[in-house]
């Protein structure tokens, strides 16, 4: 995979750019012979591991990781009426063991409420057992009938982080919803991805939930990508699965629950938000290689240069930096191309002139060039990596800010959703949302918007003129 295979399509042609970049940067191979299932290349998998380590580190502060089975008996899956209705068209079924039909069909988990809650029924006994906060990172399966797309719309979601909590009261569960939103914000901050938090309309909430809070970001083409959801489940599932606890007065009470999830769409967001015409641009927090060292070995001092590069690699490695020396026998330009495609935040160039000057030349993935003194190189590189993260955050915020418009009428909305998302006053009535959606061919995504890019908004509903508040409207993936 090198420049002989032609240039990456411009990012302006987002869909073509995205598809090409996935294999050129060795993230995913889409040639697996089952529709909607993709293969992680080792480089993509290393990125995945780093991203999920960030998420794990945040969750591990007060959650515990566990692992529940992939197979869910039909009898459990069918228990919660709304929940099964929401998923029945998407479930894969295991119907046979060898050649014998199974007595009870087994579903491949589309999500794990019905795998986890029968166990919560056994585990929760007293108020002293609460709260319970578990999560798992697993694959899950959905028979998608829409156009599938790597990392975005899959039949095997390979990296579903799902957390499931149990609380004594509705209010405790609501506090956990707030805590989960805070965690997700911190997670996306670490990836330099700005997010918009909103409450999904009632008809778009998780099947079986009281309400759903969604985390969206805006893709390069202006469409939104849902990259996390947090659900207040109320006592719907605890009543279905009989999850009860004895309160301090010795009375049996139904528990209250939440669940919240993030899939590999978080990686799709990293790739799409930061990448450019030359390939990936990765935040240092998750880049599999943070620093690539390219020895400039022209002329007689080749051995000396290679030795200096190896020494620098060792010193950065000891400082905990993910670093690689590229000593392949190819021209430096080909190496630059290779590491740029893979989004490596910093490239260090070491040549005879750098050695003589007691310095190292540093070029960021976005082309900023500077020199760092050889003495104190570790600190200089750490500062450069932090600076690079800050630049990515600023760029991404600028992208999101310029793709949101605050509008007051259907005419303005119609123009705005061609370029990005819009916020328009809406009274909360379904028929008005239907009218808005049909008028502009976009969706009412949420209300109670929490975003530093969007001021609180009130005004007459764009459809009926009654008092309304800001609703997020856009076209989503
Ligand atoms: Zn209205």
Please describe what this structure looks like.
This protein is 34% helix and 29% strand. The longest helix has 25 residues, at 377-401. With 477 residues, the chain is of the alpha+beta class. It has three domains: 14-274, 2-Layer Sandwich (BirA Bifunctional Protein, domain 2), CATH 3.30.930; 291-384, Anticodon-binding domain (Rossmann fold), CATH 3.40.50.800; 404-474, C-terminal domain of ProRS (Translation Initiation Factor IF3, 2-Layer Sandwich), CATH 3.30.110. Zinc ion is lined by residues 427, 429, 432, 461, 463-464, 466.
Give a brief outline of the structure.
With 477 residues, this protein is an alpha+beta fold.
Looking at the structure, the CATH topology of the largest domain is BirA Bifunctional Protein, domain 2
Mean pLDDT comes to: 96
> What share of residues is helical?
25-40%
In the CATH scheme, the class of the largest domain would be: Alpha Beta
Main attributes?
single chain, 477 residues, alpha+beta, BirA Bifunctional Protein, domain 2, Rossmann fold, Translation Initiation Factor IF3, 3 domains, twelve-stranded mixed β-sheet, five-stranded mixed β-sheet, binds zinc ion
What is this structure's SSE topology?
Blueprint (H helix, E strand, L loop, with lengths): L13 H11 L3 E2 L9 E2 L1 H18 L4 E2 L5 E3 H4 L3 H7 L5 E5 L2 E9 L4 H11 L8 E10 L14 E12 L2 H21 L5 E4 L11 E8 L5 E11 L1 H6 L2 E3 L5 E3 L1 E7 L2 H10 L5 E2 L9 E5 L6 H17 L4 E3 L6 H10 E2 L2 E5 L1 H6 L1 E6 L4 E5 L3 H25 L2 E3 L3 H7 L4 E6 L3 H11 L2 E8 L7 E3 L6 E8 L3
Parallel strand pairs: 3-7, 15-18, 16-17, 16-19, 22-23
Antiparallel strand pairs: 1-2, 4-6, 5-6, 7-8, 8-14, 9-10, 9-24, 10-11, 11-14, 12-13, 19-20, 20-21, 23-26, 24-26, 25-26
The chain binds zinc ion.
The site of zinc ion has 7 residues, from loops.
């Amino acid at each position: 995979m090198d420049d002989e295979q032609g240039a990456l399509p411009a990012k302006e042609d987002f869909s073509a750019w995205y598809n090409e970049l996935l294999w050129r940067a060795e993230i995913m191979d889409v040639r697996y012979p089952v529709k909607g299932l993709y293969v992680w290349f080792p480089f993509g998998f290393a990125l995945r591991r780093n991203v999920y380590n960030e998420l794990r580190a945040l969750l591990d502060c007060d959650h515990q990781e566990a692992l529940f089975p992939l197979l869910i008996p039909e009898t459990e899956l069918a228990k919660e009426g709304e929940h099964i209705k929401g998923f029945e068209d998407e479930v894969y079924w295991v119907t046979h063991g060898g050649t014998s039909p199974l007595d009870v069909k087994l579903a491949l988990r589309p999500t794990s409420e019905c795998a986890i809650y029968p166990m919560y029924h056994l585990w929760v006994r007293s108020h002293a057992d609460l709260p319970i906060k578990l999560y798992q990172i697993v694959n899950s399966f959905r028979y998608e009938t829409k156009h599938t797309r790597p990392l975005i719309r899959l039949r095997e979601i390979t990296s579903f982080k799902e957390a499931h909590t149990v609380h004594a009261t509705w209010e405790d569960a609501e506090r956990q919803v707030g805590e989960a939103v805070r965690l997700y914000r911190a997670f996306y901050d670490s990836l330099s991805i700005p997010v918009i938090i909103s409450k999904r309309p009632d008809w778009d909430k998780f099947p079986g939930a009281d309400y759903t809070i969604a985390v969206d970001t805006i893709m390069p083409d202006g469409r939104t990508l849902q990259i996390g959801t947090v659900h207040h489940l109320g006592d719907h599932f605890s009543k279905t699965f009989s999850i009860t606890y004895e309160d301090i007065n010795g009375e049996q009470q139904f528990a209250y629950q939440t669940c919240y999830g993030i899939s590999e769409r978080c990686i799709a967001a990293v790739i799409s938000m930061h990448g450019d015409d030359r390939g990936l641009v990765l935040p240092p927090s998750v880049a599999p290689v943070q620093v690539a060292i390219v020895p400039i070995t022209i002329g007689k001092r080749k051995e000396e240069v290679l030795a200096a590069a190896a020494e620098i690699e060792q010193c950065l490695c000891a400082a905990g930096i993910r670093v690689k020396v590229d000593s392949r026998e190819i021209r430096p330009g080909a190496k630059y191309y290779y590491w740029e495609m893979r989004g490596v935040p910093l490239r260090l160039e070491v040549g005879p002139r750098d050695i003589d000057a007691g310095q190292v030349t540093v070029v960021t993935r976005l082309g900023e060039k500077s020199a760092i003194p050889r003495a104190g190189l570790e600190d200089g590189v750490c500062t450069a990596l932090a600076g690079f993260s800050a630049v990515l955050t600023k760029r991404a915020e600028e992208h999101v800010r310029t793709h949101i418009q605050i509008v007051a009428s259907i005419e303005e909305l119609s123009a705005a959703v061609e370029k990005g998302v819009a916020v328009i006053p809406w009274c909360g009535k379904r028929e008005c949302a239907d009218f808005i959606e049909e008028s502009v061919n976009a969706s009412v995504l949420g209300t109670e918007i929490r975003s530093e890019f969007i001021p609180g908004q009130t005004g007459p509903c764009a459809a009926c003129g009654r008092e309304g508040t800001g609703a997020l409207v856009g076209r989503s993936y």
